[in-house]
Amino acid sequence: DAMVIQNPRYQVTQFGKPVTLSCSQTLNHNVMYWYQQKSSQAPKLLFHYYDKDFNNEADTPDNFQSRRPNTSFCFLDIRSPGLGDAAMYLCATSRSSSSYEQYFGPGTRLTVT
Amino acid sequence: AQSVTQPDIHITVSEGASLELRCNYSYGATPYLFWYVQSPGQGLQLLLKYFSGDTLVQGIKGFEAEFKRSQSSFNLRKPSVHWSDAAEYFCAVGYNQGGKLIFGQGTELSVKP
Question: Are B90 and A43 an interchain contact pair (Cβ–Cβ within 8 Å)?
Answer without folding.
Answer: yes
